[in-house]
TrEMBL record:
Occurrences of domain Lipoyl-binding (ranges): 53-129
Keywords tagged on the record: Biotin
Protein name: Biotin/lipoyl-binding protein
Biased composition (Polar residues): 35-47
Native source organism of the sequence: Anaerococcus nagyae
Region (Disordered): 19-69
Compositionally biased region (Low complexity): 53-62
PROSITE patterns given in the database record: BIOTIN, BIOTINYL_LIPOYL
Keyword Secreted: no
Pfam families recorded: Biotin_lipoyl
Length: 129
């Protein structure tokens, strides 16, 4: 028998539980960390590294929907300059209005949604360069 203290609605009870195979099977598994073998590719030349990094730096940052909902209001237009923290649009989800803010300074390249559109988590909303 195993003794446990259980609190229900603020009152503590001492209970005895029989131990059996079922309880043993409910124990948490043990996780053992084993580092992976070194599978990294061979070092590339600096020219190859620069070529790979350049497109990422030139690409626009895409603001995506953090949760499913409906676009209530769009506060910016394409070509408009925005600063980090500016409210780009308002997304209604679960009867709550959520301000979607600019993650960085830049210019609005493209608006992917219109007022009244339904969006899912991860859908692109606005591109900022």
């Amino acid at each position: 028998m195993k003794k446990l203290n259980v609190t229900v609605n603020g009152k503590t009870y001492e209970v005895e539980v029989e131990e059996d195979d079922f309880l043993e099977s409910q124990k948490r598994p043990t996780v053992v960390y084993q580092p992976a073998s070194n599978t990294q590719p061979a070092a590339s030349t600096s020219n190859e590294t620069e070529k790979q990094a350049a497109p990422a730096a030139a690409s626009a940052s895409s603001v995506t929907s953090p949760l499913p909902g409906t676009i209530n209001k769009i506060n910016v237009s394409e070509g408009e300059s925005v600063s980090k923290g500016d409210v780009l649009l308002v997304l209604e989800a679960m009867k709550m209005e959520n301000d979607i803010k600019a993650p960085n300074d830049g210019v609005v390249n493209k608006i992917h949604v219109a007022s009244g559109d339904n969006v899912n988590t991860g859908d692109p909303l606005v591109d900022i360069a």
